[in-house]
Amino acid sequence: MSLTRRQWLAAAGSGSLGLASASVLPAALPGLPAGAARDLRRLRITGLRVTPVALPDPPLLAASGAHGPYFLRTILELETNAGLVGIGETRGGEATVRALQAVAPSLVGESPFAYRAFAARLAKAPAGAYAGLELTCLDLIGRATGLRVCDLLGGPVRAEVEFCSYLFYRYASDHPTVLADTALVDSRGRGEAALDSWGEVRTPEAMAELAWQFKRKWGFRFHKLKAGVLAPEVELETMRAINARLGGKEPLRIDPNARWTVPTALRIAEKLRELPLDYYEDPVAGQAAMAEVRQKTGLKMSTNMCVTTVPHLAEAVVAKPIDILLLDHHSFNGLTVCQSVATIGETLGWSFSQHSNNHAGITMAAMITLGAVVPQLTYASDTHYPWLPEGHDLIVGGNLPIKDGKMAIPAGPGLGVELDRAKLAVAADRYVRSGVRNRNDAQLMQRLEPGWKRSLF
27, 121, 149, 420: which one has the fewest Cβ atoms less than 10 Å from its Cβ? Predict the structure, then answer.
């Protein structure tokens, strides 16, 4: 039977068409009350599982010190009366785990479609706690409707999202000090038993070779040096070496993580003009100092440090510290907030990329999703994903592929990825046995380089 437009609107207004048409919803949702298989208004949360995990991390160096031996994440599973389970991932750390465990009982009986109301319950939680819960709800809604999260957020504006190579100075994975870490509980060792084969990278020449190898393996066209580790002049030489190794044509970025003083940032900026610089990220700390460097150099400035929450936007409107904002759906507390921030930022003349910290495949799928739905996100995004050794991701089917520096939106409903329960169990056990509960990059760095401290250059 066909309906006229007037009849259809009348039926929709009275609710007689249900929540959505049968052509959109799955044929049945097992576990829902009788007669409600097509009515998602009766979909209810029955539980939230919160699983802290520890995943292997090589000794990458940054202004904060050295990574390792594990990075922490929190995996969420939202159970429902339909038998459907939504999955999510967010930052690790004891405070995040406790906050999510504490809110779990209050979610029972709630509709996952009401996820915005859950933010108030996590208002005092660390950044990223609500973001993880929102992501899990969106994945669940996608599974219930047969739609991808990107479709729920308005549809993708691009089918593939570009990422850059994220280049870190580092020690070798089998460095004796790294292997002597008392938190180490896996079977990694020397030589072929090392966590990875990238080796030590602490000279301009070694970094240039690493950039070439990343390009050869994953096809990256944009390249970012994590600076703030060696003397600024050495890091400038590293940028030159990377540029030469890549033929002088590919855009470069440098991120000292605010470990430079303003005079240092200005001095190095003059030399960066010789290079194909994509942008200059957080050379100094704070919006005022960033604005000074931006005004005196005229270089494109970016941040994931001085504008990381919505309240920071007001100061940035006045200070004008940046040209590019690196969105992070954890620090901004949700994919939907990031969409709003991009809309606001566009009115300020900003462009957008994405910030990354160590993460697994669920977050990778979320980052691809965000990159696909934000029109203003025109700069290649960061990702630590290549540093996660193959076989250690928590999703079924191995690490998501990177081809020609791009990643395609996973095809399935929700985020399009599935938890590998065996790998989850291993990572959860590793968390328990390692004793690592919070990130502390200074700890390993001070053993690798006695006397090290995060002083400014």
Answer: 27
d(CA 290, CA 320): 8
> What is the enclosing helix (H) or strand (E) of 48?
strand 45-56
Contact status, residue 381 vs residue 353, Cβ threshold 8 Å: yes
> Which residues form the catalytic set?
226, 355
Q: What is the pTM of this model?
A: 0.92
Tokens of 77: 């599973």
Tally DSSP H helices, then E strands, for the chain. Answer: 14, 14
Helix ranges (H only) for 110-175 are 129-145, 149-152
Quick: pLDDT tens for 346-392.
999 999 999 999 999 999 999 999 999 999 999 999 999 999 999 99
Q: What is the DSSP string of 177-244?
A: HHHT-TT--S---SGGGSS-S---B-SHHHHHHHHHHHHHHH--S-EEEE-SSS-HHHHHHHHHHHHH
204-218 helix and 232-245 helix, angle to the nearest 10 degrees: 40
* C-alpha pair distances (Å), 165 with each of 88, 220, 225, 298, 356: 25, 6, 9, 25, 12
Domains and CATH numbers, the chain: 160-415 (3.20.20.120)
Using 50 as the pLDDT threshold, list the residues of the chain that sit under it. 1-25, 35-37
Asked if the peptide bond before residue 69 counts as cis, ω within 30 degrees of 0, the response is yes
Distances (CA, A) of 258 to 48, 157, 261, 265, 286: 38, 33, 8, 9, 8
Distances (CA, A) of 350 to 12, 53, 226, 277, 353: 41, 36, 22, 17, 10
Strand positions, DSSP E, 380-432 = 406-408
* CB of 359 closer than 8 Å to CB of 73: yes
The answer to whether 90 and 78 have CB atoms below 8 angstroms apart is no
Instruction: List for the chain the helix, strand, coil content (%; round to 5).
Output: 40, 15, 45
379: number of Cβ within 10 Å: 24
